[in-house]
Amino acid sequence: MKQKAFLGTAIAAALLLGANVASACAISAWSSATGLTVADTNEPAAGVNNPVSGGFTRYSARCGLRVNAQNKFVQDNTPQNETSYRVRFYYYTGDITGSTQIFRARNGSGANVFSVSHDGANMTVNLIGGGSDSLAVVDNRWYMVQLDWAQGTGLTGRIRGAGATPCVAPATSCSNNEEIIVAGSTAEQVQDVQLGLLATSGVTVTTPVFFDEFDSRRTTTPPRLVRGDANASGVVNTADVTNVLLEINNQGLRTGQPDCNESGVVNTADVTCVLLLIGNPD
Amino acid sequence: MKLSAVFCVAMISSAVANASDNRIVVSASSAKGTSAVAIDVVSDGSVSAFQTFLHFEGVSDKQIDLSGCLSNLPKDMVGRCDFSAGKVVVAVYSPSITALPAGLTPVGVIKLVASPSAIRATDGDISNTKGESVSSLVDVTVN
User: Fold this and answer.
1) What's the confidence (pLDDT) of residue A23?
2) Domain count within chain A
3) pLDDT of amino acid B3
4) Which residues of B touch A276 (CB under 8 A)?
5) CB of B80 within 8 Å of any CB in chain A?
6) Which of the ends of chain B has fewer CB neighbours closer than 10 A, N or C?
């Protein structure tokens, strides 16, 4: 984890899975970890930055959390009987077989209020007492998961990744880009949340999955990070092109999101991706 | 007439180039219903990427010839010049992260089969070899 920001509306805000320049990668901001240690969070190394080849990947800044087997996860006990919970995190799909929850928000009895699952081909959001919504996903790509839940209402949000283009209204579902709408009305409260490969059996991991930029809040939705904004300026411009080139040339990890095409690797394809995003709304 | 105007801008810009003078220079001239818009960049010697969006009021994309937009770039600079969402996007960078020489560097010329009622430049950004934005200045001159 990267830092713990104390926003006025935060539940357990910004339990980010990265690190700032001066600090090492860590998971100590989480309440507990099962099967994971600090060795499972790291930054991409020069020349070994492809997770398919055993490297670490991250979505933003420096560090990502690697999960290479089932029943490995982190837990946040900070949400205490929350009646609203808004979360955003980034998930690298890796290459897995079998179905597992990758995120769950639980009530005081340990039952899921809502959850996100991945079975290697689809990501599915489930709401207790309600329905589900799913999106076909591809291996070895980053996806943003952004969910808003409140007691007595349904669940809304978006899953988007793999360099997906904008999903233009009125469409709610496009390739790698799904607006999450799950109807339901419950009196539940969120007591804790877990993040990782939560299944205890039936899951085989060929390429590890990764998590990054976890942010949870009570009343405001954590925003989507600007794809291709390599220098974290808030906009995509030619300065980001140079920043991507600098990272490719081993001149240090960038502070923003240089992996523009969300492939898990920063390479020349991201240069082209950034260039094409200039002047085009994403 | 157009060349004279561009040359004039070049001389002035070169003479006073320093760290605060990094800028994109857009010079337009019109005659007999056609226009030529020259694009140049003035650098203090650290610039390796720059961009601007050009809005030609009252001109459709079919009236814009972008074939020469980047034709004068140095060999180690590449980029994109296209019509996108109602504007011309000019974005240039150096794949080898090489800085432009100090002074004025010609970028190219956009030709219009029309006389725009106005030319606006937005989203200007000039960055150095460290990927740091050093200027957002875009000077637009219409002769």
Assistant:
1) 65
2) 2
3) 33
4) 80
5) yes
6) N
Mutate to test the interface with A, among B22, B51, B55, B84 (most CBs of A within 10 A): B51
Q: pLDDT tens-digit profile of A42-97?
A: 999 877 789 999 999 999 999 999 999 999 999 999 998 999 999 999 999 999 99
Contact A237 B89 (CB under 8 A): no
CB contact under 8 A, A278 and B49: no
Q: How far apart are CA A127 and CA A143, in angstroms?
A: 20
Predicted complex ipTM: 0.82
Would you kindly state where each structural domain of chain B is located, as residue ranges?
A: 2-129+138-142
- A237 and B84 in contact by Cβ < 8 A? no
Provide the CATH number for the domain around residue A149: 2.60.120.200
A125 and A245: one domain? no
Q: Which residue in the set A242, A271, A280 is minimally distant from B127, CB to CB?
A: A242
Sheet strands (E) in chain A:
32-34, 41-42, 64-67, 72-76, 84-92, 95-97, 100-106, 112-118, 122-127, 132-136, 142-150, 155-161, 173-174, 177-182, 192-197, 204-207, 209-217
The answer to whether residue A18 sits within a structural domain is no
Using the beta-carbon criterion (under 8 Å), do A237 and B97 form an inter-chain contact?
no
| Domain match, A148 and A247 both | no
Domain that holds residue A145: 32-217
Residue carrying the six token digits 């002769």: B143
CATH architecture of B2-129+138-142: Sandwich (2.60)
Domain annotation covers residue A94: yes
Does A171 lie in the same domain as A52? yes
Q: Taking the CB of residue A17, how many other CB atoms lie within 10 A of it?
A: 31
pTM: 0.89
